[in-house]
Design goal:
With about 180 residues, this protein is of the alpha/beta class. The protein has a single domain (about 25-150, about 155-170), classed as Rossmann fold. It has 6 helices and 6 strands.
Length: about 180
């Protein structure tokens, strides 16, 4: 196991945008901390992925997110700098995220987003910087302001096009079996 657990998260409230570190994200943990999302919502992953795709584009960061309950044999899906792993039953997203981290050539160059104590402790043991879900959400809000209202700045068509692209990508890589 790698050492290097001396690295710490930045102080609460410190901006995360000054670094180019890519992120490994505990998806359901982040959903549980997001005030506008609910783990009870069957579309919670879809909604989070829209937000993460927007953040990845605006911040120009690589984001790798892990979710539980994927289909067996599903492969990571990518759109731009967003990579999504739906972990099959029998394995947890937490364990998949930590395995991914351990396989990286230098985990010290990665930031793990989680509020799960076990995941955070193991990520630190492997040398990664850990950021709580709440800290990450503050950073997302700073980089990805709420969408402009119709007619502002002439950006509506660009935002609609981006949203349509994300929706198409999400439909193409839908992980749930078709309803009968």
């Amino acid at each position: 196991m790698r050492t290097g657990g001396s690295q710490r998260s930045p102080p609460p409230g410190a901006p995360l945008t000054g670094t180019t570190m890519p992120y490994l994200i505990d998806g359901h943990n982040l959903i549980g901390r997001h005030p506008g999302l609910s783990l009870a919502d069957p579309d919670d992953e879809r909604e989070l992925l829209k937000l993460l795709a927007d953040y990845a584009g605006r911040s120009r960061r690589k984001l790798v997110v892990f979710f539980d309950r994927g289909q067996t044999g599903s492969r990571p899906q990518r759109q731009g700098s967003l990579e999504v792993h739906f972990v099959p039953a029998g394995r947890t997203a937490d364990d998949a995220l930590l395995d991914y981290l351990r396989r990286l050539p230098d985990p010290r160059n990665w930031r793990v987003v989680t509020s799960d104590r076990r995941v955070a402790a193991q990520a630190r043991q492997n040398g990664a910087v850990v950021t709580s879900a709440d800290e990450f959400l503050r950073s997302m809000r700073a980089v990805s302001p709420p969408p402009a209202r119709a007619g502002q700045d002439g950006q509506d068509s660009a935002r609609t096009s981006e949203a349509d692209d994300i929706e198409e990508w999400l439909r193409a890589f839908e992980r749930r079996p078709p309803e009968e």
